[in-house]
Amino acid sequence: MRKVLWRNRWLSCINELTSLELQRQSWTDKRNSNPHWSFVEFMCSYFDDLGIDNNYEYQLKQGWITKTEFDSILAWHQLLDKYDSPNKDDYDVEAILTDKKWRMIIEEGEKAKNELSAIISDEEKRVLFEEIDYKQYS
Fold first, then answer.
1. Would the pLDDT of 138 be above 70?
2. Residues 8, 9, 10, 14: is their CA dihedral positive or negative?
3. What pLDDT score was predicted for residue 127?
């Protein structure tokens, strides 16, 4: 059960971190009061909440992610891990959304997402490509 829950959260995080439209809508919405819908929380949800601080070492050992799945997202994951927001200000979402480095990470993420989608189940694809309405969680 832990594996299924972790994978759903993992795929959801990838979805959020590769959707520029969702980011633009949720990060800039001044009426949004849910802290999850921010750059900082998207990054924390992916890196911290998923426990992938050792490059997925634990998840690979546990069989929660396959080597092929890991390889499909590795380049994107590494770019994301090395990303520093403009002026090191993680709360300047306008600067992040227009940052060429961030846009390149989104593009790489789209490639990784499509590659990953070719090797996961249809049910997991629905999570990976779900149209998220962040307002229902605000």
1. no
2. positive
3. 97
